[in-house]
């Protein structure tokens, strides 16, 4: 493994240690000092003009194993092989290489933890910017006596590391996705929904400032008051206008412990109504829910998951007051327990480790993530659930549904149904990747489910496996589309960034 090199030295490919000194724009390949193609592509050069590769602080990787890894993602069904990978040693490296790619017409995609499910962070023959090496956190800035603060973190930092750093100061980001080993830049590019969203908005709604590298290679700072058009275009903007390199996050007081409830239901409408009640009255800081199949595979059981924060973030939890008015099945399995706050946030870690050990984490994940209008959520959910009845979601697979509150979702590109309390319905499939016919059939079924929801006024949360054309994206973004398209033209005029999303390219 080569060591990071300073800016005065040439970069090296991994496979043979040969210096990568140029990019041949005719053969579309990186070239070594010996005049041969870098090991990544196996193509021969044509003797065309070469452009010098700029010196970098990090490494430019071209070995086949690394390229194959970045031609895959958590979906394990779409594979587009890049020509090279940048592992930046500094933010300046991202600026340098995006400018270089502009000169050469090379497409670029940023990759955090590779948790996309449909090739969204892949690029065929282009450059992948792996942000994992940009992972600095802090310092945490607490507002004296206010119980709030901020922290600036680089895009490659994962949320588990962020919360460890902030908890040392008694603070926490207000919203988390259920899985903590995702990068900050990755979740801010799609939105960042979780069980706390009904109370605090999405993760993108809790960002005060961004530092980004635009598709034109400009390093810019933006916020709600400084270059607000860029700020709006980057948050939940799918990496179309800029690569996030750092973000300043809002922090709130963290609890020491939480009171965690699992409440069973047998009627879908009652389950959703109780979730809506909890989303609107704020008695719980976290509200989610799971749909459970019966022995025949029909989705007839429901579990409401709710969490109340204890001191100092909230009052000492009172079970009677917290559960008042809820119509759960008291004869079913009710769970009420007190957990350490971080243990609650990180509760999926053991299950993920077990899946990794069993080799199942590398199975295909053609996920479906839809946002349903609240007034038709019960009808739509019933239709969609009946459509997958009897189909095993696979090892680790799960069906989730939970409420959001539109008034707390303020990011324009995080598109929500026009309803005060929309619902996220997520079918998190796990399928054997050897059966690609079944995986592709599931992707087609996802597209049909999305169309059903779209006609009813719903949208998709863009982390799943749904094939989208530019026309589909225009419909998804609705009234936000003109400003988004204008920002793309302004900040990525050559349309190099994030081609795997297919927002502005077929």
Structural features, described:
- This protein is 26% helix and 24% strand.
- Helix 6 packs across helix 14 (481-491).
- It has three domains: 11-133, Uridine Diphospho-n-acetylenolpyruvylglucosamine Reductase, domain 2; 137-254, Uridine Diphospho-n-acetylenolpyruvylglucosamine Reductase, domain 3; 257-465, Vanillyl-alcohol Oxidase, Chain A, domain 3, CATH 3.40.462.
- The protein is of the alpha+beta class.
- Residues 1-19 and 39-51 have low confidence and may be disordered.
- The protein is globular and about 70 Å long.
- The protein has an eight-stranded antiparallel beta sheet with strand order 18-15-17-16-20-21-19-22.
- It is built from 14 helices and 22 strands.
Characteristic terms for this protein:
506 residues; alpha+beta; Uridine Diphospho-n-acetylenolpyruvylglucosamine Reductase, domain 2; Uridine Diphospho-n-acetylenolpyruvylglucosamine Reductase, domain 3; Vanillyl-alcohol Oxidase, Chain A, domain 3; 3 domains; six-stranded antiparallel sheet; 14 helices; globular
Secondary structure: elements and pairs:
Elements: E1 11-12, E2 19-24, E3 29-32, E4 51-52, E5 59-61, H1 64-70, E6 84-87, H2 91-104, E7 108-111, E8 127-130, E9 137-143, E10 148-154, H3 159-167, E11 171-172, H4 184-190, H5 197-200, E12 207-214, E13 219-222, H6 228-234, E14 242-253, E15 257-265, H7 268-281, E16 286-293, E17 299-309, H8 319-323, E18 335-340, H9 341-345, H10 349-357, E19 368-372, H11 377-387, E20 398-403, E21 423-428, H12 436-455, E22 459-460, H13 470-477, H14 481-491
Parallel strand pairs: 6-8, 7-8
Antiparallel strand pairs: 1-2, 2-3, 2-4, 5-6, 9-10, 10-14, 11-14, 12-13, 12-14, 15-17, 15-18, 16-17, 16-20, 19-21, 19-22, 20-21
């Amino acid at each position: 493994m080569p060591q990071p090199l300073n800016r005065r030295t040439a970069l090296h490919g991994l496979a043979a240690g040969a210096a990568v000194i140029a990019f041949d724009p005719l053969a579309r390949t990186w070239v070594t000092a010996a005049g041969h193609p870098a090991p990544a592509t196996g193509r021969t050069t044509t003797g065309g003009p070469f452009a010098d590769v700029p010196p970098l602080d990090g490494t430019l990787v071209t070995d086949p194993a690394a390229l194959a890894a970045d031609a895959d993602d958590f979906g394990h069904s779409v594979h587009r092989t890049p020509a090279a990978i940048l592992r930046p040693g500094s933010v300046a490296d991202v600026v340098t290489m995006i400018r270089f790619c502009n000169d050469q017409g090379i497409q670029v995609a940023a990759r955090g933890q590779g948790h996309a499910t449909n090739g969204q962070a892949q690029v065929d023959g282009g450059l992948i910017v792996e942000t994992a090496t940009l992972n600095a956190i802090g310092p945490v800035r607490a507002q004296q006596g206010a119980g709030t603060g901020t922290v600036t973190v680089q895009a490659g930092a994962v949320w588990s590391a962020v919360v460890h750093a902030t908890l040392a100061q008694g603070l926490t980001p207000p919203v988390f996705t259920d899985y903590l080993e995702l990068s900050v830049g990755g979740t801010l590019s799609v939105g960042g929904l979780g069980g706390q969203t009904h109370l605090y908005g999405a993760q993108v709604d809790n960002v005060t400032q961004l530092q980004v590298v635009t598709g034109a290679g400009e390093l810019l700072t933006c916020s709600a008051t400084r270059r607000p058009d860029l700020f709006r275009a980057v948050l939940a903007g799918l990496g179309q206008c800029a690569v996030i390199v750092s973000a300043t996050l809002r922090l709130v007081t963290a609890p020491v412990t939480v009171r965690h409830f699992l409440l069973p239901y047998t009627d879908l409408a009652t389950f959703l109504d109780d979730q809506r009640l909890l989303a609107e009255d704020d008695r719980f800081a976290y509200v989610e829910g799971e749909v459970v199949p019966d022995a025949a595979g029909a989705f007839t059981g429901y579990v409401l998951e709710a969490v109340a924060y204890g001191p100092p973030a909230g009052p000492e939890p009172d079970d009677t007051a917290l559960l008042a008015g809820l119509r759960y099945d008291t004869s079913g399995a009710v769970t009420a327990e007190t957990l350490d706050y971080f243990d609650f946030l990180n509760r999926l870690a053991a299950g993920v480790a077990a899946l990794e050990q069993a080799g199942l984490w590398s199975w295909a994940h053609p996920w479906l993530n839809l946002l349903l209008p609240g007034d038709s959520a019960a009808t739509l959910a019933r239709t969609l659930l009946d459509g997958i009845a009897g189909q095993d979601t696979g090892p680790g697979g799960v069906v989730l549904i939970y409420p959001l509150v539109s008034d707390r979702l303020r990011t324009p590109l995080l598109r929500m149904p026009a309803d005060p309390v929309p619902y996220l319905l997520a079918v998190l499939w796990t399928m054997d990747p050897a059966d690609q016919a079944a995986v592709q059939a599931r992707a087609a079924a996802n597209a049909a489910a999305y169309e059903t929801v779209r006609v009813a006024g719903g949208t998709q949360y863009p982390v799943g496996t749904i094939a989208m054309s530019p026309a589909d994206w225009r419909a998804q973004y609705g009234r936000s589309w003109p400003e988004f398209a204008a920002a793309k033209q302004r900040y990525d005029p050559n349309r190099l960034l994030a081609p795997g999303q297919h927002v502005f390219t077929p």
